[in-house]
Amino acid sequence: MSTLGDDELSLIFHWINDSNNRNSFSLVCKRWLRVRVKPVYFDDVGDDGICAIANGCSKFCKVSLRRRRKSIGNVGFISIVNKSAQGLTNLDLGRCSLISDQALEVIGTVRTIWVLKLDCCSLITKLFLNRFIRSLAFKSNGYMR
């Protein structure tokens, strides 16, 4: 019997929905821990590629589209958010020059995001950002239906 590679183990790992189980498995097996924290990098990917990744890997919890992402716009970003909405906790869009206010509207519907980085996103307006922040504060105070 041959051993599973990290890629195969990672695919199995992503089927475990309960984060407590993921953490427990990572404590007893070094390979599970390595697979659990192993980042996946996609270079030179545009909206079509991001949509394909989102369709194939819908259990992302941390997504970073920082810097080299001059070809990812609202379509790819919205696809990632919609497919990963149940478990998405960290989202880094720093220096994504094609992400606009329209994309932030989608983020506002996801309740699991704890970290959101938007530095140097030139298409996101201050007016929209202020309104977005007020709506998040409103939701966190328990006034959302």
Structural descriptors:
single chain; three-stranded parallel beta sheet; mainly alpha; 145 residues; 7 helices
Write up this protein.
α2 (19-28) packs across α3 (30-37) and α4 runs parallel beside α5. This protein has helices at residues 6-13, 19-28, 30-37, 47-56, 74-83, 101-107, 126-143; strands at residues 62-64, 90-92, 115-117. The termini are far apart. Helix content is 49%, strand content 6%. It has seven helices and three strands, in the order ααααβαβαβα.
Q: What is the total tally of β strands?
A: 3
Class by alpha and beta content: mainly alpha
Radius of gyration: 17 Å
Strand order of the largest sheet: 1-2-3
H-E order: HHHHEHEHEH
Strand content: 5-15%
Mean pLDDT: 77
Give the termini separation. 53 Å
Task: Give a short overview.
The protein has about 140 residues and is mostly helical.
Strand-helix topology:
Blueprint: H1 6-13, H2 19-28, H3 30-37, H4 47-56, E1 62-64, H5 74-83, E2 90-92, H6 101-107, E3 115-117, H7 126-143
Parallel strand pairs: 1-2, 2-3
Helix pairs in contact: 1-3, 2-3, 4-5, 5-6
